Amino acid sequence: MIDVLVIGGGNAALCAALMAREAGASVLLLESAPRAWRGGNSQHTRNLRCMHDARQDVLVDAYPEEEYWQDLLKVTGGITDEHLARLVIRASSTCRPWMRKHGVRFQPPLSGALHVARTNAFFMGGGKALVNAYYRSAEAMGVQIRYETPVDAIEMDGDRFVAARSGHERFTARTCVLAAGGFESNREWLREAWGQNERGEWPADNFLIRGTRFNQGVLLRHMIESGADAIGDPSQSHCVAIDARAPLYDGGICTRIDCVSLGIVVNRDAERFYDEGEDFWPKRYAIWGRLVAQQPGQIGYSIIDSQAIGRFMPPVFPGEKADTLPELARKLGLPEAQFVRTVQDYNAACRVGTFDHTALDDCHTEGLTPSKTHWARPLDQAPFYGYALRPGITFTYLGLKVNDLAQVHFGGKPSGNLFVAGEMMAGNVLGKGYTAGVGMSIGTAFGRIAGTQAAKAAGIKTGAVHAEA
């Protein structure tokens, strides 16, 4: 019998499989996607948010535990488990040597408009390279891997794992790690979670999925219906404002629109609806998808002028360009008079001090609702640009409740041999909101914990299994 069964194929699942195998356990990993699409949402990631008390290899300055915690506390609005969050934060400071051992490479610190050279370590080649490195290492170490094997049910004996089922196949193991992702690709579940709004719209019908098409949430729903303790709001997610022309699935990072803080955002009625300069973009980019989802038709428009060009990561598709505001409104299909009025009102309210996009500067608006608290400059330098925005769901926050040993709970009691990691438990730390790179921090920390604990629960006494030369 296999010692440890890992269900899932992304970062958390791979970390669990590698740690269990290092401990000496036999490991079978079941990935629902074909080999070419393996890796879940991890293939679209770029970086890992890391605590560090002083400059380290690819990280500049310091990013201490308390600052990391305060950043997380702010974006989640306090909807987070502090004990588990601090566990993730501390684990983020020590995981990179282990990642390198399994083939992950990091690139030199980034600077400029991304503002994350101090807080985030970037993967050389992005998430796809990270996933491929982990798979190579797992295969070399003897982890068995099955692709195109979606698990739809778990057999339990009370609170103990017995077997997993994929169609007519049955997989038994001494212990199991669940790391099969959320339900963001399940349109019906998204409709159920978001419901119908006061305008009679079903917002979820206009959502795009930034990540994998294979996260249908089948296993997550099965576990909740089977009595596993759940945590999180099903309508909360990592939800980014992305290019409305993005593909339905797997658009990834290149579909993000990063110029929001450099201009204004209006809805289809050409009205502003939120403070575009609230905070640094890496701390606020993941609230804009939800904001757009709450607007009529679930669409918004990011508007900039020529002053912003070169200050943000350009999206893969060029925006609409015009020499005048009325012309831009026509190209975007916005009510012309209202659009011009909105921009003029914004321009008149700007109080420009010393513009600095790398700091929370003193450029702000006065007498305008909503205000823009930083980086407020009049949009008066032609040409003007506009990007249509749609909500882009990366992953959902509804998950299974865990403790610091990554154990699944049933009626408040932790299972002795069933563990969970990654998106399936991220809601313990992320009740809402997001800050760049923290999803990979959660998946890496709890994937490693789950793998270690699963091997221990399987009765493994010795470790030191190494990759073949």
Structure characterization notes:
GO terms for molecular function: oxidoreductase activity. The strands form 5 sheets. Strands 1, 2, 5, 6, 7, 8, 19 and 20 form an 8-stranded mixed sheet that branches. The longest helix is centred in the C-terminal third of the chain and has 20 residues. This protein has 12 helices and 20 strands. The radius of gyration is 23 Å and the shape is globular. It is an alpha/beta fold. It has 2 domains: 261 residues, FAD/NAD(P)-binding domain; 155 residues, Alpha-Beta Complex (Flavocytochrome C3, Chain A, domain 1). The protein is 26% helix and 20% strand.
Total E-strand runs: 20
By CATH, the architecture of the largest domain is named 3-Layer(bba) Sandwich
Unreliable stretches: none
CATH homologous group name of the largest domain:
FAD/NAD(P)-binding domain
Major sheet size, sense and barrel closure: 8 strands, mixed
CATH fold call of the largest domain:
FAD/NAD(P)-binding domain
